[in-house]
Amino acid sequence: MQFLQRKCIPPLVFCSIFALFLLFFSTFSHFNGVPFLFFHHISAIGDSFDFVENQLKLTPVSTPPSPPRFAYLISGSAGNGDMLKRVLLAIYHPLNQYVVHLDRKASPEERLALEEFVKGYKVFNEVGNVRMIVKANLITYKGPTMVANTLHAAAILLREGGDWDWFINLSASDYPLVTQDDLLHTFSNLPRDLNFIDHTSKIGWKAGQRAKPVIIDPGLSSLKKAEVAWVKERRSVPTAFKLFTGSAWMALSRPFIEYCIWGWDNLPRKVLMYYTNFVSSPEGYFHTVICNAEPFRNTTVNHDLHFISWDNPPKQHPRRLRLVHMKLMLDSNAPFARKFYPNGRLLDKIDAELLSRGREMFTPGGWCAGSGENGTDPCSVVGTPTVLKAGPGAKRLQLLIDFLLSSGTFRERQCK
Ligand SMILES: *[C@@H]1O[C@H](CO)[C@@H](O)[C@H](O)[C@H]1NC(C)=O
Ligand SMILES: *[C@@H]1O[C@H](CO)[C@@H](O)[C@H](O)[C@H]1NC(C)=O
Ligand SMILES: *[C@@H]1O[C@H](CO)[C@@H](O)[C@H](O)[C@H]1NC(C)=O
Questions:
Q1: Quick one: which of 112, 169, 218, 270 has the most CB atoms within 10 Å?
Q2: What is the CB neighbour count within 10 angstroms for residue 9?
Q3: What is the whole-number distance in angstroms between the Cα of residue 378 and the centre of ligand 3?
Q4: φ, ψ for residue 310 (rounded to 5)?
Q5: pLDDT, tens digit, for every residue of 262-303?
């Protein structure tokens, strides 16, 4: 009663009504044997929904394991500028870091357009986590200049990208199948030293067609993009290390990237020199390094996190995905897929059904704090980046991760 008196001196009438109310309540609750039940009810109504909402925001699903950060390289060539922008918007999240690169085959106009897009986007400027390699590299498809470009971007991200946990290499014909909130949420619970890299030492036909031929990458000596040049001599398979091969798509841990870039150990350098004359080095360089490096072989997860549809038998390029692939793609539970028709119907379907992404907008997530009024992008206002709203994509991805890390899969498939 002390409490009531102090609190309600002026409106005496209200006070007495409230006291009566309390009296009634206590009888009622005693009768029910559930004290305070009624009180809870009152507070829920009285404090409006704002209160409930704030409570929800204060306890995001992502704590206590704090969300990780991804560092992305998205690269493209002539004519890929628009798709590159679309991929960037679809996988953008303020916690992540991004490097975009258009190789030297793209026209100066196209590169300038991308540069202006990156510089002019309000959110990118505010957060400051998107950068472009302005002095473009010349890249030979299948040649070592491709690996050199990936290492270059990784080095930039180490120097300028602050904290991040995984490096992911994408092209303009890749696309996400889950939101970044889904990805960050699922990876929150994973050891940060895992490396997702599809690999095998059964190089089979590749021994004769990839390991033994010697090539020269024209990207190192000419200014024009050209096919790799084949040398008449052949070499034998190396004995200093064991060759591994696999998919050119991967998510590599920061410790492993540091190992490759810093080069305190000689293995990454030695393997790079070997791969300088190797056909399709992106399908072997990191695989060979990681499986020959004792501290890292046990961190490999044998998967590239992509859905890719190959012809049977596989040709040089994977099939372009169409609407009929939607179900297979979803069933794979992979967070990314390739390769797509630029701005095709399948991409629109993924935007609408999997990412809830509006045209030319960001993929919405817990960080988006705008009202979305009048058709504006809700993500044009940056809220709290660590608030993650995981959706159905996180459930799918979790299935894949659970499978990959299950006993009988994880250890059994490492560097075999
Ligand atoms: C990195 O991304 C490009 C796509 O732009 C791809 O072709 C390349 O093989 C990837 N992997 C490596 C290891 O460079
Ligand atoms: C890696 O795993 C193997 C087999 O489980 C074990 O013998 C080896 O000591 C591990 N290496 C490291 C560096 O942890
Ligand atoms: C939306 O449009 C209405 C009427 O045109 C305007 O009053 C309002 O300020 C707009 N809101 C935003 C967020 O632009």
A1: 169
A2: 8
A3: 14
A4: -100, 150
A5: 999 999 999 999 999 998 899 999 999 999 999 999 999 999
